[in-house]
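Thread: Newbie trying to understand structure tokens

Hi all, I'm a second-year student working on a class project, and my supervisor (Dr. K.) asked me to get a predicted structure for one chain before our next meeting. I've only ever worked with sequences, so writing a 3D structure as a token string is new to me. If someone could post the tokens and maybe explain what I'm looking at, I'd be very grateful. Here's the chain:
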Amino acid sequence: MKEKEKEEESQKNDSAKEKYAQKRAKFRENKSSSSSSIFLDTTISTPEVKDIIKAVAILLKTQLNEDSTMTKTLSKESNLYYFSEEKYIEDFPEYFDAQKKENIHKIPTTEDIMDFMEALYNCVQFSPECCIICLMYIYRIIALTGLSLQETNWRPLIFVSLMVSQKIWDDNALPNGDFSIIYPFFDNEQLNELEIKFLEIIQYNVYVTLSNYMTFYLNLRALVQNHIELKPLSKYSLKKMEHLINEKKESKLKRSGSHGKFWKEGEKGSYVIN
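---
Reply by user tm_fold:
Sure, no problem. This is what the structure looks like when written as tokens:
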């Protein structure tokens, strides 16, 4: 019986590795010259979005620099370990040569973070607000867990945070399958699992109020003012945001797949992982 179980487990691992190999092979064929390892054929064209992305990148780089002085060992049993690229190097060592490992362990510059987010934007065309909400999610996780941003987890954290914020904020939300094509480091199954872990870590608190957003945006604007001048929130923008947030209160996310929950000002709403 044990031999049969071992054989089934071996077949399962072989199948997973084969799928991973096919995904990486397809990625290499379509890969652009961008260091972010995302399909990227065009450059970002909206000045407002570019400024917001730069501001977010500056703040994340500052956090990375601060956290680099910390010597925390992340348990492999922790949900946070799923956001470390080290996990996937260990799971599939045969697909990571010395050069790939060196690239993954490289400490990113502000420009590296910008390139990664811009590449995502060019593929998904998410609303500029998603960048701010993504940053809010990352800082919620840091506050809840004490997580330190590292060279091996900043990409997965930004990626999944943007993916969830796009589902929450934008009307035309993309399914996880599309995101796994955009950033092929993860396949669809791994991405579903990452999203579940993300929601568990953040305690399903994905809702953002207008006052939360305004406060966070104003703080971000003040923190990066020596590097870039973010536009103040106009009355029109605030009115539009208030309208959209009120719409989100009344509507439920409709996705196909596994269900989770998110909080809406003390009330439970539906969140679906697809």
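A couple of things are worth pointing out once you decode it. DSSP finds eleven helices and two strands in the chain. Residues 43-67+76-273 form a domain with the Cyclin A; domain 1 fold (CATH 1.10.472.10). Feel free to ask follow-ups in this thread.
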